[in-house]
Amino acid sequence: MRGAMHAKWAACAVAVALAATACGGGGDGGSGDSGAVLSASWGDPQNPLEPSNTNEVQGGKVLDMIFRGLKRYDPETGEAKDMLAEKIETSDSQTFDVTVKDGWTFSNGEKVTAQSFVDAWNYGAGLKNNQRNSYFFAYIEGYDQVHPEEGEQTADTMSGLKVTGDRTFTVKLTQKFSTFPDTLGYNAFAPLPRAFFDDHDAWVKKPVGNGPYLVDAYTRGSQMSLRKWDDYPGDDKAQNGGVDLKVYTDNNTAYTDLLAGNLDLVDDVPAAQLKNVKNDLGDRYLNTPAGIIQTLAFPFYDANWNRPGSEKVRKGLSMAIDRGQITDTIFQQTRTPATDWTSPVLGEDGGFQAGLCGEACEYKPDEAKKLIEEGGGLPGGKVTITFNADTGSHREWVNAVCNSINNALDNERACTANPVGTFADFRNEITDRKMTGPFRAGWQMDYPLIQNFLQPLYYTDASSNDGKWSNQEFDDLVDQANQETDTAKAIDLFQQAEGVVRDNMAAIPLWYQNGSAGWSERLSDVKLNPFSVPVYDQIKVS
After folding, report:
1. Which of 223, 205, 187 is nearest to 48 (CA)?
2. Element (DSSP H or E) covering residue 319
3. E strands in 111-266
4. How distant is the alpha carbon of residue 312 from its chain centre?
5. Which tens digits make up the pLDDT trace of 171-224?
6. Three-state SS for 109?
7. Handedness of CA 50, 51, 52, 53 (dihedral sign)
């Protein structure tokens, strides 16, 4: 799930976009019952809830509730604001002096100190700990010793992290990275208590954090129960007694339970219900822009998709997809055809480039057929799109994409769908490099920077580069952009890097996604943040 535009600029774009197009409300704003518990739809996370090992949406929802880091992204604007950071100072954009606020503890009573952050980051970076988000620490000096590209790690701690006092530490990077502080609201940078290291197995079974909620119980495949932490020291205290996250393998079932009064909150309204949702829920439905883009990724580790000319095949497939018809027919104004690889919530000043994809994202069946033939044809004569079938209405749109491709190529067997039962199983197949054709690769931003839509997905060996695409020109441009302290120049470099993604069709952009939610009459003050995640702690229950 994951800089070089500053978050404050992105925040303005996010705020404007949200204010301009939000389609729902948050209830009557009543006081509610601060002890009442709400229920919400959810899906099992892929991995245990270690902050540096969670890079997908379902696990991220929980981490947002049980952890607070140095920064937090404003739930309305997306702006990176100080949370546990009293101050982060630098004179050269390479060495940062961090001061942690006093008075913060973990829910087990342990004090949150500078060491809590340094220990957590070193653990997250360590090769032997096999953390999915280790890549986020790559800019810290000494990362290559704790996480070498080959062989075993030769150090357990990064030389660029130094504790200088109970509440102070320094971070030295290998290069200038002007927006490094703005990335620190991402969950990979959360602090960890000593209990995490002293009895790791026990911690994984019942995570201990420093956020407004405690993990009360978790039964995989059924439910995670979170309860309000009464002694939480932050200003954003939970306005309810807790949240029961109920596991659903079909969001249509979740929606039915909502209408029947068996569930309070659904944050993924199924496509099949979008035509009915306003009649069903009235003002208890929210449809608002979010930093999410849906794409089709490719397994570049498979020679069939990484041969000379295969970029023409990928571009041809893109031109065989009638995005306009699919979004109009299936998604009922909750999706917009994508014309670049980022999100409109960034705004033009933040790097969004409407139309960057050009004709490659336009429906041109004759040209599509010609390009695929020029590129050597579909590998094996057909293409299979793999997706998880449990959430997100993916079955409907994948079938529609395949129908569009089949029609464009005049071959009813050119494209087939390959559903995987659960999100966790789907992610495991991707992680194990079992993909043989294009696969669903939606991206929800970790922070509102153009860098986050590009580097984690397309940089060589990046944490979420699931297709293992690699391009030196792209990598070099991203490195230059991260070092640039002039905002306009940095964004221009990132846009040049995005042009490389376009020219190679490293992934097929499909559509930008709105966040949607529906809720019961028991709830008020329901909002989605710019990441499309419910702001659980501010929901009131009557």
Report:
1. 205
2. helix 310-319
3. 161-165, 168-172, 213-219, 223-228, 242-247, 265-266
4. 29
5. 999 988 888 998 999 999 999 999 999 999 999 999 999 999 999 999 999 999
6. coil
7. positive
- Please name which of 335, 296, 290 lies closest in space to residue 314, comparing C-alpha atoms: 296
Mean pLDDT of 45-54: 92
The pLDDT tens digits for 277-321 are 999 999 999 988 889 999 999 999 999 999 999 999 999 999 999
Q: Which residues of 186-221 are buried (b: 16+ CB within 10 A; e: fewer)?
A: bbbbbbbbbbbeeeeeebeeebbbbbbbbbeebeee
CA distance 304 to 379: 6
**Cα 243 to chain centroid, rounded:** 21
Pairing of strands 383-388, 415-420: parallel
- Give the Cα-Cα-Cα angle 30, 31, 37 (nearest 5 degrees): 105
Q: In angstroms, rounded to a whole number, what is the distance separating the alpha carbons of residues 197 and 175?
A: 30
Give me 20's structure tokens: 């301009």
Q: What is the pLDDT of residues 138-170, one digit of tens each?
A: 999 999 999 998 999 999 999 999 999 999 999
Query: Crossing angle for the helix pair 365-374 and 394-409, nearest 10 degrees?
Result: 80
Return the structure tokens found at 503.
């020219």
What are 233's two structure tokens? 């020291």
Q: What is the mean pLDDT of residues 238-247?
A: 97
- Cross-strand partners of 264: none
Q: Which of 72, 49, 70 is nearest to 61 (CA)?
A: 49
How far apart are alpha carbons 480 and 88 in whole angstroms? 23
Task: Report the Cα–Cα distance between both ends of the chain, in Å, rounded.
Answer: 33
Letter for the amino acid at 279? Answer: N
Q: Alpha helices, DSSP H only, in 206-284?
A: 251-260, 277-281
Which CA distances in Å does 460 have to 103, 463, 467, 470, 472?
Answer: 41, 9, 10, 5, 8
**Which secondary-structure segment (H or E) carries 99?**
strand 95-100
Q: Which pLDDT score is estimated for 441?
A: 94
Q: What is the DSSP letter of 123?
A: H
Angle (CA) 1-356-466 rounded to 5° is 30
The whole-angstrom separation of Cα 252 and Cα 426 is 19
Distances (CA, A) of 476 to 447, 472, 481, 490, 505: 22, 6, 9, 13, 18
